[in-house]
Description:
Layout: E1 21-29, E2 33-41, H1 44-47, E3 58-66, H2 73-102
Amino acid sequence: MQAYRNPNLDIAKPLVAPSYKLEPSIVAQGDDSLEVAYRLYTPPASSAWASGAAFSFDVRLRAYFRIVSPIPGEQVQEFVSAGGAIIMWPYLRETVASVSVRLGLPPFLLPVITVPTLTRNDAAVDPARST
C-alpha cells in the first residue's frame, strides 16, 4: 500500500513549519471538577500563505479534571496553564501530526515537553543510586 501524496504540494520546495500558540481557558469550575478548553493554533499573522508556512491549524480539545482536594483560587489558573497543559500536550501534538499526514504532508511534529523530575530538597537525581 502506497502513502497518499498531496498533488498540490511542491515537494521540491522545503516546507516551513508554522508558528503556533496554546491558549487554555476555564469553561466550568465546581467544587470537585474543572473543565478546561485548550486551543492550539497558528496565529493569524503566521497563517498567511505569504509567510511560507505549509499549512495552518486550529485544534481545540477539552479536558475534564476531577479535583480531589481543594485548589486555592489563585492557583487554579496556574494549574490550567502549566499542569493541565502538560497533560493535554500529547493529545494536541498527536492530533496535529496525524492530520498533517492525512493531508499528504510530512508529519508536523510539535516538540516533546519534558517535565523535570521533582525530588526531595530539589537534589539532582542519580539514576545509578536507588533510594
